[in-house]
Every structure is written in C-alpha cells, then in structure tokens.
Design goal:
The chain is α+β, with helices and mostly antiparallel strands. Among the domains are: about 35-115, Thrombin, subunit H; about 145-245, Thrombin, subunit H (Beta Barrel), CATH 2.40.10. About 20% of the residues lie in helices and about 25% in strands. Strands 8-9-10-13-12-11 form a six-stranded antiparallel β-barrel. Helix 3 (about 260-280) runs antiparallel to helix 4. The longest helix is centred in the last third of the chain and has 22 residues, at about 260-280. The radius of gyration is 19 Å and the shape is globular. The N and C termini lie far apart (about 55 Å).
Length: about 300
C-alpha cells in the first residue's frame, strides 16, 4: 500500500462519510453509519433492540438516560444493522454509565447519559466515532427548517434505517414543550421515531446534534391526556439538544468541543429551572413545578 492509499484509509477510518438521503426512510448498512450502536436486551424471545447509542470516542458513547434505567441484561452492540447480526462477540464491555445528575424521568428532563467502555474500540469500516457539533443552532431561516438525518431501528426494532428530516429549535419549535433543551422534528403524519429509537442520533451537517428521547402528542398541550402511538397524526418526535450539555460531556470526554457562549447560557438558564422543579418536588408539588417550568419557558424566553 503506497503513502496516498494509506492516507485515504486513515481519513476514512477517522472521518465517516455521511451519505445524503432523500425524504423516504431507507434501510442502510452499518458501514453507512458506523457510529450507530444498538442497545440490545436479551429476553426469553431472544435479543431485542431496546434503544440506541452513538459512538463519540474510542471509549465513550452518548445515549439516553432512560435506556439504562434498568440496565440488567442489556448490551451495547457495534457493527450491526440487523438484529439477526447480533452476537455477544460484537458487544462493548461497559465500565460505567454516567447519568446526567439532574435527569428527571417524570418530566423527561436532561435525558442524556455517557457510557464509558472498559477498553478502546478498534475502528474499522463497521465501527467508528462521529464528532459532536460544537456550534450553536443556526439563527437564520434554518432555525425551524434544518435538514438533518435521523437514524432509527424503529417500530420493527430489527433493521437500521435513515431518514432525512426537518429539525426545529426555537420558541415555536416544540409547541408547548420547553425548547431550550429540545430539538423537535417537523410533524409528518405517519412518521415519527419510535421506542426502539430512543438514545439514537440526530446528525446535522455531518455532526451529532441531538439524542432521541421521546414522542409526544400535541393534544397534551391543551390538557388532553393522550398516549402517543408511533407515527400517529400530531405525534411529535423530540430529541435532547446536546449543545447545552457540552460542558458536562467535556468533563468526561475531553475531546468534546467547548460550548459556545450561547449554549452555556442555555445551560445556566436550565439550571435555574431545575432548581425550581427540585424544590417543589421536595414538598410534593412536582406537577405544579412542571407547569411552572413550561410557563417560564414560554414567557421568559
């Protein structure tokens, strides 16, 4: 192998090429998204893809805290785009799961976790990291219409797919839901992420921007207790926006980009809101605290 070909191989290993996709969801090979990891739970019916994670460093991955609320019998698998490919020989031994200290399952708050592996991952065409975006969300006409790629195992929980989506971040992006910490996808009837997708990546401009964490029904914004079903009308896909958490991630993963001032301000604003929720929680006014937080988001910001 000559010097030129060796250089090209190294470039390929360290900087995965993100293929462009059209608006239709398509099944893909893991070589097209080698940063995607599957959180697999072994059940009596065999292995099932329970969640997803994203490799951001040889020893670190990002995922959703809810994915490891019950970590028993769960494995992180690499190099698979179909559950039929799962083998315990393709799992990454976990050394530690670091939950965000203010993760709050009841209001789906700070749903981000860092996974540390016992040994560094050896990169090849089926497994390599992706860079975390270190800039703030666009403030131009892309604020509510940014083209990104959503990677999913989805309702089938069996095969990896990719779909081009319009991602939104801003005051009106997530309707009645707090926008500071969230990215929401534009509503498309018949399409949403699903339960096997939580923890999975939202990739914008070739970098990791969000982590899938929930689906919500817009009727909940007007007080109706409506349980969302994947792909139903008015069901919105929501992601944790990584930017406000960059400093926290950087405490563990030193290669993480430093947060821009705007994202650090979002993190500080979030801390104030969390203090209100935690105080009210202590006096059994947690639901009231949740409503106050939503009002603060919509009024103050």
């Amino acid at each position: 192998m000559n010097i030129t070909s060796t250089f090209l191989v190294n470039i390929f290993l360290f900087f995965p090429i993100i293929r462009a996709f059209d608006e239709d969801e398509v099944y893909i090979s893991i070589t097209e998204a080698p940063f995607v990891l599957a959180v697999v739970q072994v059940t009596h019916d065999g292995p099932q893809i329970d969640c997803m994670a994203t490799l951001v460093h040889r020893r670190w991955a990002l995922t959703s805290s809810q994915c490891f609320a019950k970590p028993d019998n769960k494995f992180i698998a690499y190099g698979i785009s179909d559950i039929k490919q799962f083998s315990k020989n393709q799992t990454l031994p976990i050394e530690e799961i670091i939950y965000h200290p203010h993760y709050h399952q009841h209001i789906n708050n700070n749903d981000i976790a860092i996974v540390k592996f016992k040994t560094p991952v050896e990169f090849d065409k089926t497994v390599k990291n992706i860079e975390i975006e270190g800039t703030t969300w666009p403030q131009d006409d892309r604020a509510l219409n940014r083209e990104c790629i959503s990677y999913r195992f989805g309702q089938t929980r069996r095969k990896l797919s990719a779909k081009k989506v319009d991602a939104r971040h801003g005051k009106s992006a997530c309707h009645c839901y707090p926008y500071i910490r969230n990215i929401c996808l534009a509503l498309i009837d018949g399409d949403s992420i699903c339960y096997g997708d939580f923890g999975g990546p939202l990739i914008c401009d070739g970098k990791l921007v969000g982590i899938a964490n929930t689906i919500v029904h817009l009727e909940q914004c007007v007080g109706r207790d409506t349980s969302p079903s994947c792909g139903d009308k008015d069901v919105m896909s929501m992601y944790t926006f990584i930017c406000p958490y960059l400093q926290w991630v950087k405490w563990y993963v030193r290669e993480t980009p430093a947060p821009p001032a705007s994202c650090d301000a979002l993190r500080n604003a979030e801390t104030v809101r969390l203090t209100v929720v935690e105080c009210l929680k202590e006096i059994n006014l947690e639901d009231l605290g949740t409503n106050i937080i939503i009002l603060m988001e919509n009024f103050v910001n």
